[in-house]
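This section describes the prediction task in plain terms. A model, or a person checking by hand, is given the sequence of a single protein chain and must write out its three-dimensional structure as a string of tokens. No templates, partner chains or ligands are provided. The sample shown here is typical of the held-out split.
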Amino acid sequence: MSAHLGASPKDVIEKLEKACEKGKIDYLYVGGKKVGKGKMYLESISESWDEIWNKGELARATLSLTFTEYD
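The expected answer:
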């Protein structure tokens, strides 16, 4: 995730963490294309903060997401 591309990494991370905590199950799309046949469960998230601007704003982060296909 990169603020340089118009996304707020912090906002995206918070949204994904909420979905993971709630056990949200939905279809997974990457680049506008559906991944897998069924819905997916976001099992876990890990993150590393790669770039922080001088006022403490997260500018770039690397995320690792683990999905499980839901039956």
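For orientation: The chain has one helix and three strands.
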